[in-house]
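Consider the following input, taken from an annotated entry for Polysaccharide deacetylase (Salinimonas iocasae).
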Amino acid sequence: MIKSLYMSTINALLMLSGLTIPVLAQAEQSSAPVLLYHHVSTDTPASTSVTPQTFSEHMAYIAKNHTVLPLSQIVEAARNNKSLPEDALAITFDDGYANILENAHPILQKHGFPYTVFINPETIDARADQLTWQQVEDMSEEGVTFANHTLDHLHMLNRKSEESDEDWLKRVWQNVEQAQQKLASHIDNPEQYLAYPFGEYNQQLAQKVAQSGYTGFGQHSGAIGPHSDFAALPRFPSAGPYANLKSLKTKMNSLAMPVSSSTVTNPELARDEQPETVSLTIDGDDVRLSQATCYYNGEAIDTRVDEKTLTFTLQSSIPTGRSRVNCTAPSTKHSGKYYWYSQPFFKSEKSGNYPD
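Applying the prediction step yields:
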């Protein structure tokens, strides 16, 4: 505020004297990261949990260094290429666990942070570890956003025996619609958002999400920006092995890699399919592509740059389940910030089903 008052005074004096001073544009961007949590507890699965103490440390750091915005505000800004504060981010949870209310909600309320919980309506009020509908309604009145995580947290890519692609898509989409209807019976005008359980989706499902007016969210990492796929937006997992604040700080400051095209047409792979080489077209002069690096399983992989094309090569086979390649490159204008892009891959078991 003192700096702002000082600059206003200087500008006023210069105007009175007939002089002008160039206005320095504030750093603006139309992308922001979204954090993903599940459990905030000490007695839940370590892979998807963060302790209340660690969560409190995350939120205290965010309160000092970032602007937390509603998820909808970040999505709409990215979709319409509108500017956001350069320190903006959003906070989300998957699954409506009771420990969110017990351990996370008081911390978030203390800081005045908006947040979104993607829930499975069929499990609400039906399991002891889940929220009740009364709690969901009360939290909603306190400003918490609730959205669709399917009716019962199914593996959306699982196929039934002899099920055609058409029948599969019809079945899983009925699940989404039923979840949305049940959510709407408890919450006024819920957003048409869908978080894919386990982050699993394919080209057909993403197309259905977009055609039906939904915005989809995955569990691969990266910031959201104008070039993002709004049927499968990335979020940064922030619990379990990803809860370390030192590495999370870099992710909180990340920018959305402006990828205008990719040679990957479908993240779901056939059992014998291996995407050895993937090329991404990068649309943006601020990305320092000469310093781009791609990673798989935490290890740097062969990465090449040819003008605006970033190519990575996978030497090891994609295993059953969920995998992803992350690519980063530093920003030229935004000191200390990195552009981030994540390409997920999904491969079923021989049965056609996916492991938890």
